[in-house]
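Hi,

I'm pasting everything inline rather than attaching a file, because the server keeps stripping attachments. The sequence lines come first, and each chain or strand is labelled.
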Amino acid sequence: MEYKNVIAIDAMGGDNAPAEIIKGAIEAINERADIKLRLFGDKDKIETELNKYTYNKEQIGITHTTEEISCNEAPAMAIKKKKDSSLVVAIKSVKSGECDAIVSAGSSGAILVGGQVLIGKGKGVKRAPLAPLTPTAKGVSLLIDCGANVDARPEHLLQFAQMGSIYMEDVVGVKNPRVAIVNIGAEEAKGNALVKETYPLLKACKNINFIGSIEARDIPKGEADVIVTEAFVGNVILKLEEGLASTLIHIIKEGMMSTTRSKIGGLLVKPALKDTLKTFDATEYGGAPLLGLKGLVVKIHGSAKAKETKTAIFQCVTFKEQRINEKIVAHLAEEMAQAKEEKAGEQ
Amino acid sequence: MEYKNVIAIDAMGGDNAPAEIIKGAIEAINERADIKLRLFGDKDKIETELNKYTYNKEQIGITHTTEEISCNEAPAMAIKKKKDSSLVVAIKSVKSGECDAIVSAGSSGAILVGGQVLIGKGKGVKRAPLAPLTPTAKGVSLLIDCGANVDARPEHLLQFAQMGSIYMEDVVGVKNPRVAIVNIGAEEAKGNALVKETYPLLKACKNINFIGSIEARDIPKGEADVIVTEAFVGNVILKLEEGLASTLIHIIKEGMMSTTRSKIGGLLVKPALKDTLKTFDATEYGGAPLLGLKGLVVKIHGSAKAKETKTAIFQCVTFKEQRINEKIVAHLAEEMAQAKEEKAGEQ
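And the predicted assembly:
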């Protein structure tokens, strides 16, 4: 049988690989009959895990690989040298068209380099940003860029805003997403050189709903849908959110265990609190796509478990159905044509 | 009577001025007999507030001013034009030596500009950073710089690390404080151009305890005492911490109100939780000093209430007793002499 969606899974990447990754894969195919998964990694290990489950065998394929890339290796070198690693072979299956997308919980650096080098950027794309969804009080926002593209230029940020808008509208389903740039004050005159140069470009861009600057304190409140920033700041925001949320939840739990009274109270609030905190759990929202490539690469947390793996697989399907990369390239081409026309008009 | 510590208070700055600022001032002098406060602002309004309290009248002085600087004004222009504003007159009282320090909850920009322009930087100080204490799971860390010094250079960050170490050791009492630079990975090779250039300078600096890079997720855990970063990123960290903590606490409270069971539990855990969350409340730790000036300027939150005002006043006293600014200038002079010597040795 031909499957509409074929997703490559790096079965060896991540802290909980292969067990949790394969568990998530099985959960995904048991929920949807239109997905086929190809697992890349050590065949014996993969089969040991697969044997634990009941599933439609047609929906799983295995490609045996002999190497693994660890998080401590220099990414560019690892991608170049470890040609038979689960990650490299899986990424190449997207390049060749065998698979539609790849999900990996492996080394972030290697995923970023691998995606850009082995698959390549779409026409007109200057840089491929990593764009995770982050939980807010109102739902989710797209934080773009959180990758390794440090020292970005204004024209990169402009493209990130455009790519992010397309993603939020077509994958997440937010109508006319509000785009904001991270700044240290609300006024246009504030900010560092990069923000000051980028601001007018975003303001002039007709195809996005630019609402101006956003201060970091308003990000968790959900005041914008697409949060544009260069990767260093994006990375700081993403990791601080994760670190602070887990630290706060930890000290709240400790606080609840501090007296007999609070222990009893803690037991009573637990179920309600669990639901609430779930909405603020980054792992609920799947993975972070590397946008603008000629194929889809989705990075999930190194600590990803079955749930996140499954969500990321479904995300890939929506991404493919919505033809996001094609839309991005078309959008950028249109933008360039417009810019050329305007330039010609000026002369 | 001569007072050892004379602190200027901008009675008109901040969302809760003058009521809460003056309440905090009274609480401070009622706790310590060795402090005199000079309140700058509208005399009538100040006296109306003062009349609510019982206190030693000798410990309070008033300087009447007729103008106020709002948060919406361009800082440099406001400082230049509003010569009779509470903030400008109060800052000048530090410059003249009448007061030892100033505390203000007014416009951040105006405080930063006013401090640097009207008081001036200490000898050898390249930039004056704003350095707030931020709560962590283990206590507090100093986040330096969070001011308006965007687009910093490596030599600025090096000085921030040195100033921050002196502050944490002598004001906060942390022995041999651990200094780390904010980065997007733990390895020396990671980061943007600024971090890559700053890293070796920090590593080579003999007078600080440099422990390397810190990822944002480890900041709330308290993995370093002095967190060095340029002001844009520092500002993002500071505001994101405040925004996320308040958003999380809000949704946790909502979660507790969602069922009858959780409501009862919420009542039982409330006292214990209040104590716990207090340790994570930034307002508990007073204000943020502008380090390296020829006088002490302390900025407190625009939303500061009496408690934060009082804590900031006590912070000023410790700062003065420990002769922090003198130590900073001496430290930088020593550093410069060493560098010269080494250069001479090389030739």
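Chain A touches chain B through 64 residues (CB under 8 Å).

If the labels don't parse on your end, tell me and I'll reformat.
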